[in-house]
Amino acid sequence: MKIGVFGGTFNPPHKGHTRLVTEFCEKLGLDRVLIIPDKAPVHKSAEGLESDTDRLNMCRLVFCDKRFEVSDIEIKRDTDSYTVYTLREIKKIYPDDDLYLIIGSDMFLMFSRWYEYREILSMCTLCVASRCEEESLDELRRYSENELKIPIDGLTGKGIIISPVEPFEISSTELRSLLKTGESTEKYLDGKVRKYIEDRGLYGYPKK
Ligand code: ATP
Q1: 3-state secondary structure at position 180
Q2: What b/e sequence results for 114-127 when a residue is b if at least 16 CB atoms lie within 10 Å of its CB, and e otherwise?
Q3: Would the N or C end of the chain have less CB density within 10 A of its end CB?
Q4: CA distances from 154 to 55, 75, 109, 110 (A)
Q5: Is the N-terminal amide bond of 13 cis, ω within 30° of 0?
Q6: pTM, entire model
Q7: Could you read off the pLDDT of 19-45 as tens digits, one per residue?
Q8: Mutate to test the pocket of ligand 1, among 52, 75, 106, 179 (most ligand atoms within 8 A of CB)
């Protein structure tokens, strides 16, 4: 089987996330994608972070295609949410399957700083999509070549695939600020997640 792995803070999950996963799912013919909310983010501060349960629940609302499985593997684990630990665990469950790790370009452009990134590259194919217009595909290629020492020919290199799709520019940080100021989020946020946020009084919403 071809198994996608998509980790994130998902605080909250938005249409940029679903578009990214759906795009790679279709393009690569993935049989299953594990959506994995992290517990204690290694790369970011935890300020304004909603609970593990709320982020899991919101992911379940939005990643509802039957190929998607929202997993609490990182939330349940006692160690840091390092991707390499997660992939080792997934490899034990699926030793003979091919893993595809899906990430946005912001994460890719600091990939050489990820803990044990060489081991990560040995365990999976890295699937990267650009997050904003300014980051050209050339910049991603250059990073791969100069930092990771992996040349990209066209849009692929050894163990790396770059998506040519136009970026969908939104982040959870921007969404949290739209929610705070009461601006419209329809374009970026799934209606079920919006309702969940309102019902639970997340991100500064007065609790119903
Ligand atoms: P925050 O603004 O809180 O940092 P975020 O929007 O970056 O959050 P994360 O949950 O940290 O979302 O991201 C999970 C993964 O999804 C990362 O690999 C990130 O690069 C990718 N990603 C997030 N938003 C987009 C987007 N709009 N387009 C493509 N990839 C995205």
Answers
A1: helix
A2: beebeebbebbbbb
A3: C
A4: 36, 37, 18, 21
A5: no
A6: 0.94
A7: 999 999 999 999 999 999 998 555 555
A8: 106
